[in-house]
Amino acid sequence: MNDNPHRTAEESRTARRVRVVHPRTAAVRRVPSRGVLHEMGDETVLGEIYLRSLVRSQMRLGLLVCACAALTLGGTALWMALDPGLDHRHWLGMPAGWLILGIAVYPVLIGMGAYFVRHAEHNERDFAVLVRDR
Amino acid sequence: MNSELPGAAVLLVGLATVGVGALGLRRARTASDFYVASRAVSPRWNAAAIGGEYLSAASYLGIAGLILAYGLDMLWYPVGYTAGYLVLLALIAAPLRRSGAYTLPDFAETRLRSGVLRSLASVLVVLIGWLYLLPQLQGAGLTLATQTGAPAWLGGLVVCAVVLAAVSVGGMRSITFAQAFQFWLKLTALLIPALLLAVLWRHDGSPHDTGYPTSRTNVTVRVDTAVTVTLPVPEKLTVRGTVDDRPVSGMLALAPGAHRLGAGTMVELRKGDVVPVLSSLPASTDKQWARPLGAGRGHPLYANLSLILAICLGTMGLPHVLVRFYTNPDGRDTRRTALVVIGLLSAFYLLPTVFGALGRRYLPDLLLTGKTDATVLLLPERMIAGLPGQLLGALVTAGAFAAFLSTSSGLTVSVAGVLSRDVLRRKANRVRWFRWSAAIGIAVPYVLSLPSGHVPLAALVGLAFAVAASTFCPMLVLGVWWRGLTAAGACAGMISGGVLASIAVLTTILTGDHPGWPGALLAEPAACTVPLAFLVMVTVSLLTRDRIPAGVGQAMIRMHAPEWALSQSVVDRSSLETDRSS
């Protein structure tokens, strides 16, 4: 069984992958319940092409979100270092620097996370459609 | 100080933790329950549990203390802790869950098929786990000593006992619920005092100070060990003890500059006195303190950027983080859980800033002793007199212990998992050996925590992050996304990054800050060591291209295909084994 985390290397090489959950969404339920990639039989090469494209789009998405986070945070650090007027400014009754770093960055980070989750699931749905309509 | 209320609060938190653990006992029957709560934890519970586990002594006590001493720049710590979860979500959360690996060594072995790499990863997990446990236990000692006057070794011992009791009776299932409970306790314990104190501060008038911190009340400070302090301006202070090696008793006019205070010296600060600052902390005006790059460090922009990088990339390499993914049912739920965690962390991290900023105003005497980690604990009683202040102090203490207990139990389980699997190597009676491993896992850092001096909590945690970012981060990111990674490359990268990062931060902790670029690089090595580790890993992997592990195609499918695509039947491995990178 796969749920034993302390299997040996030998076991893990021969372990069969088992289903751990039931699909949840309607879109997923329409997919044949047997392993789709397996069902392709002769077309596994095609299956792998689909999978490679899924991996590529997920990686692009992940890197995009990380790059946005890096630009936002790095940009903020640079801005605060290079704009000498910032510490005289008050927004909403708070010194600007404290407002930015203490409060304002958090909704931005949550927004990036939500963007990632939505698009990652979207990529997987696209993959589902590809595999089903092959 | 009334020591009964905080004592009772600690007792209650401990009992509640063991109680929830005992409830889990009825359900924990199998090894699967024990290790991964049978993967039956819903995302909402799981997110609160992750938040509970992640918010450690450094977050609860350390950040406020750093803000009090160093100012605005320290807000990068909580921002980094939250952004770290975003990076983790974006790069590795779902693939790691789908990889089926339960620990970091498991991942290293299943992905790269190398026993040597597994051993290296095990050593690193134990090392990082202990580095991270050390400040938790030290923080517990500090908290109990500050609030009840107990000896410093007692707090850590209480944490050890409660963690061992909770872990060994219920395993992962019981800690999951205990940690979720502890997250909400921590949030409440900071939120209520923060709101009340902020309102009080608003009514206090004269909101913005710009000069050197001055005492707002008459307070007597005792210096435990001989220290050097810096007085920024001439000041008359009432001192009993030794100053600059001369015995003193009474009012003393001190010139600006460095002064040595002997052990046991009492400094009686009156209202309005400028506070002498411990020489290892910056003696800055409130104006400098409130301004960007005002922390008084060399090359502050580099230091800030490197710190953000270390925390952002180190999060994914912490040993107790990966286990948590495994208690999610699938990759999709893992992503959703991680997103909820980012929200919960964002809510929590608004609060230490309030304590740090108010602490600068109402607790400047902590600058004299350097015990700034006590800011959160002392602030309620300093600002609110009488029973209400004491009750708030007890609430804050309860939250602090929830922080130590939840992080320590998560780390102990992770370290114990590795110890029982890779060091003790007992196959029979696994649960019993797991309990023994847990005992060893927490006893070692407890013993190490006893003699440690006043290294700030958040700085110790920073060491763990820097090492994790320079070792596990490249291994995980390349392992998840790049088919060309080899075991030799991963080993070389992890060793070079880990050794350099450890040397750099240990040098800073043991010998103090150094001037100029070398000092900045030693204090915040991540900006150099992380790219270096990536570079070494990629280069060595390319050189050992012929040793790309068999089955990499299979591993990629497992990590990236949605669960439903692989369900029920095994993918035809032989035909999918088209490994184009080799």
Describe the protein's architecture and organization.
The complex is a heterodimer of chains A (134) and B (582). With 134 residues, chain A is mainly alpha-helical. Helices cover 67% and strands 3% of the residues of chain A. Chain A has helices at 9-14, 26-29, 36-39, 44-82, 96-132; strands at 90-91, 94-95. In chain A, a hairpin with a 2-residue loop joins β1 and β2 (94-95). The longest helix of chain A has 39 residues, at 44-82. Chain A is elongated, with a radius of gyration of 23 Å. The model of chain A is unreliable at 1-5, 23-34 and 39-43 (pLDDT under 50). With 582 residues, chain B is α+β, with helices and mostly antiparallel strands. Chain B is built from 25 helices and seven strands. In chain B, the strands form two sheets. Chain B has a four-stranded antiparallel β-sheet with strand order 1-6-3-4, with no helix packed on it. A three-stranded antiparallel β-sheet of chain B has the order 5-2-7. In chain B, β3 and β4 (246-254) form a beta hairpin. In chain B, α11 (300-314) packs across α22, α16 runs antiparallel to α17 (386-424) and α20 packs across α21 (516-523). The longest helix of chain B has 52 residues, at 152-203. Classes of the chains: A mainly alpha (134), B alpha+beta (582). At the A-B interface, α1, α3, α4 and α5 of A face α2, α5, α7, α11 and α13 of B.
Radius of gyration of chain A: 23 Å
Estimate the strand proportion of chain B: 5-15%
The side-by-side strand order for the widest beta sheet of chain A comes to 1-2
Order the strands across the largest sheet of chain B as they lie in space: 1-6-3-4
In total, the number of strands of chain B is 7
| Class of secondary structure makeup of chain A | mainly alpha
How far apart are the first and last residues' alpha carbons of chain B, in Å?
69 Å
Question: pLDDT under 50 segments of chain A (min length 5)?
Answer: 1-5, 23-34, 39-43
* Molecular shape of chain A: elongated
Task: Quickly count the helices of chain A.
Answer: 5
> How much helix is in the residues of chain B?
55-70%
The major pleated sheet of chain A works out as:
2 strands, antiparallel
Oligomer: heterodimer
What global shape of chain B is seen? Answer: globular
The topology string of helices and strands of chain A comes to HHHHEEH
Largest sheet of chain B: 4 strands, antiparallel
